[in-house]
Design goal:
The complex is a heterotrimer of chains A (308), B (105) and C (99). With 308 residues, chain A is mostly helical. Chain A is built from twelve helices and no strands. In chain A, helix 6 packs across helix 7 and helix 11 runs antiparallel to helix 12. The relative contact order of chain A is 0.11. Chain B is mainly α. Chain B has one domain. Helices cover 79% and strands 0% of the residues of chain C. With 99 residues, chain C is an all-alpha fold. Chain C has three helices and no strands. Chain C has one domain: Helix Hairpins (Orthogonal Bundle), CATH 1.10.287. The chains are: A mainly alpha (308), B mainly alpha (105), C mainly alpha (99). Chains in contact: A-B, A-C. The interface between A and B is small, with 9 and 8 residues.
Chain lengths: 308, 105, 99
Amino acid sequence: MQFAFDSMLGLGLLACAAGVFWSRDLFRSVVMFIAFGLLLALTWVRLEAPDLALAEAAIGAGLTGVLLLDAIGHLRQHNEHSPRNHWLLPLLCCIALALLLILSFNARPEASISLPQLVAESLPESGVEHPITAVLLNFRSYDTLLEIAVLLVAAVVAMALNDGLAAAARTSTEQSNRDPVLAGFTSRLAPVILLVAIYVLWAGSYMPGGAFQGGAILAAGLVLLKLADFHIERYAESLLRLGLAFGFLVFLAVATSVMIGGRPFLTYPEAFAGQFILFIEAVLTFSIGLILFSLFNQSPGQEVPHDN
Amino acid sequence: MIYLQYLLVGAGCLFFIVGTLGLLRFPDTFTRIHAITKADNLGLGLLMLGLLPSTESLPQALKLILIWLLVLAASATASYLIAHYVKAQSPDALPHADTTSEEQD
Amino acid sequence: MTTDFWFACIGAVLIAMALFTFIRHTHLLRRILAFNIMGSGVFLILVGLAQHQRQTDPVPQALVLTGIVVAVAATALALIIFRRFYQLSGRTELDEDQQ
């Protein structure tokens, strides 16, 4: 039974990927990509990784899908040039790559240390009960610090590419054509989304959930509001920009402030580790949500006339 | 109790299959929306009813019901938006005579 | 054939398919899609192979969680650059790819 389900799921993934790659219409490709994201979320559940399933459902299927559909909507025509003529050599190389990868799986070296065991042993000292949150924010918090830095850089580059254009786009869409049904639904849904984001963040300390999933849900809510023509970013633009950097700055401040007490960089005092992690996570959720939203918000529109 | 649950979940799955069949086989966007939303809402409702007795606590049960209500509201809004869009693309086309909306499925 | 190993193999096939599309198609949006799916394949291998014949492992799962969030930021940035390029040039392919 389980094997049948796994086979179906795996073949479904491959079929969706084939749809993404080889359908003629790009719109169809994007829709297949969203379906692929949903199937991948199911796959993470089968691999006993509910955290990844949450993140994939919110990000892979939700946010990426919206970004891609938005980009498609601004293309004037969907058709593309015919693909390249020489295909035999790449095809052979790619088949060989797949075979080599699968063969190499069997030749992998044995692990000299057992990471899950190590995590389980150190879990009581980490301040949280959920192992993945412990890894992300205590054992390997360097990764998370650098990750939020990467997100911040992406948002800054997006703003740099769009500055000046944003003002032009804003005036052109000044009068709102708010759809009553969508606006009503969204305005009622927004508090629920906020509540879910905070719940997922809070739950992260003892069960699947955490800053990334909460941030993704927050960003999805903000994007939904934007799509329903509620331009919240206009009311607090400078605050929004500050919020982008807030997560990284607070994380860095906490990481360095423990050095005053004579501890190494990024280690928390054991007695307060739980509170430290929750505080950092709350700030991270806020910033990740805002960064992902601003990456959507900064997308260049088509209204701006191009002069070449 | 467990047989009732099997029955409810099975009926829910049946509605999903029928809805998907409608989505694949119906000729235009409006009938497709009709098939997928009606079947999915009812199918998901039956699935939720079937799973409710297996929940361990009241909050868990309430979360299940909340998911169903959210999906109901979201799918109703999404169907309205799709229908609205198709209507705006071809204002003179009657819903049942619309055969040119193949690319918006 | 465990579940984990099966999905690692699916990940390998996804990578190969995506690479083929990446080479063959020149439309930048399709390349972004292919790149994303290639990343998903890598994530599947990372988690699947680490858990094959062992218990569930939180370390690769945490790494992949970081990876998913960075991937969406990279995709968003790629889309923004692509749309800016399209705005300025009206083209959806790079210069060296035009036949």
